[in-house]
Every structure is written in C-alpha cells, then in structure tokens.
Design a protein that fits this description.
Layout lengths: L4 E5 L4 H9 L4 E5 L12 H9 L6 E6 L4 H10 L4 E4 L8 H10 L4 E8 L10 H8 L5 E6 L16 H10 L4 E3 L8 H8 L3 E4 L19 H12 L2
Parallel strand pairs: 1-2, 1-8, 2-3, 3-4, 4-5, 5-6, 6-7, 7-8
C-alpha cells in the first residue's frame, strides 16, 4: 500500500508544510479566505506564503467552506492552489456551479467533499447520490465525517463506517481520499477496507496539549511520522 497518497490538513506555516513533506506526505492542505469562517483559517496572504515556500513535489490543496461563487473566485484570484477543496454545505453549491468555477479557473482541479454521517446506514444517506451528481465536475472526492449539526464537512476528528468509504470508492472512477478520525492506529485498517487513492489527517496529527512548533505551526512531528509509517506499512 506504499502508493497510497497521504494528505495532511491544518498546515499554517511554511515550517510545518516542509516538515510534513519531508516526512513523506504528498498533499498539503491549507484553509484560507478573506472572510473568516473556520478556526485555523488563514488569510490569502498567509496561504500564498506557504504555497510559494514549499518544495514543488507536494500537491498544494486549498480549502474553503464558502458556497458563494463570487467569494470563492475572489479568494482564488488572490492565490490559486493546484487543487481546491470544496468542503462547505454540499447542497449549497450545485454541480452546475462547480462547472462554472472550473470554467472560471481552467487550470484548477476540484476536490469535492462527500459528507458521511456517523452511525447512519448507507441506505439512509445520500452519499452515492452525491457521488453520481458531482463526479463529472470533480477531480477528487474527499470522503469525510459530517457532524449532524454542522453546515460544513469534516474537521470533526470523528470516524464513520469505512464500508461506506468502500462503497463510494467502488462506485466511481474519481480518485477518493478518505478522512474522518484517521490515526496511526486505525489508518491501516481503513486502507484495507476501502482501498482508497489516498488518506487524509487533520485532527489527530495536531498537538493535543496546546503546544506549537517554533514558527507557530500546529502539526506534531511525532504524530506525522507515526501516521506516515502506518500508511507505508499497511
């Protein structure tokens, strides 16, 4: 399973970006925008500093929870990553609107988040319907746990039924990155169940005691190393 891509979110500094890349991660994820919408979201200027300050081998992923095309476009005009992750309310931005975003930014790849509810059977969720609706306009799917009360998707640290990940992966040719409470202890099992294109970590590779790295980053090098090794050994 050494070819499984590793995506790390919550990158806030150039130092953390290069640290996770040097540890063997393939995608770095940065949440940014002019309107503050989520904790840890960076300004466009800070995101630009990170994307311009890392080695070119890493895929630079930007995230938004916004659903207004003009707001999203304004942010992309400031700094356009290689991949843009739409992680807001999936019902707030239609496939036609995603197609319009692609028209406005022809070089941009789209990662569409697919919301999975924890503890809810596949038959009672809309995930496969979402996959069918969005696969024509998505370059990647990010399958993540959605809190029932939240509008956006992910960043919960909560797991969900990985057989749902498997069902999504098997239903589409769009590369799928799985997320949702993945840790060094459970990521190998998730890989064996779902056979995804990649795996993603945010919550469980952060420091949990309020510490930061010298430059203000929040990623724990020991947890990053453990996560990478667990993926490589899966």
């Amino acid at each position: 399973m050494a070819d499984v891509k590793i995506q790390i979110y919550g990158i806030r500094t150039v130092g953390d970006a290069n640290m996770v890349i040097n540890a063997g991660c393939h995608h770095i994820g940065v949440s940014y925008g002019k309107i503050k919408r989520t904790p840890g979201q960076l300004t466009c200027e800070a995101a630009k500093t990170i994307f311009e300050g890392v080695v070119p081998e890493a895929v630079k992923v930007g995230l938004t929870v916004a659903t207004d095309l003009d707001e999203i476009s304004e942010n992309l005009n400031e700094i356009e990553p290689e991949v843009f992750h739409l992680s807001g309310d999936i019902d707030g931005i239609s496939p036609d609107q995603v197609a319009e975003l692609r028209h406005r930014f022809p070089k941009l790849k789209i990662m569409q988040a697919i919301p999975v509810l924890a503890g809810v059977p596949l038959k009672d969720q809309k995930v496969l319907e979402y996959v069918r609706d969005y696969e024509a306009v998505a370059d990647y799917f990010l399958i993540d746990t959605k809190a029932p009360s939240a509008g956006d998707i992910g960043a919960t640290g909560l797991t969900h039924d990985q057989t749902i990940d498997k069902a999504i992966v098997e239903s589409t040719d769009v590369p799928c990155i799985i997320a949702g409470g993945l840790t060094p202890e459970n990521v190998a099992e998730a890989i064996h169940v779902a056979h995804p294109y990649g795996v993603d970590s945010f919550s469980w590779t952060n420091y949990t005691d309020g510490r930061t790295n010298p430059d203000g980053g929040c990623k724990d090098p020991a947890k990053i190393e453990a996560f990478v090794q667990a993926v490589r050994n899966a």
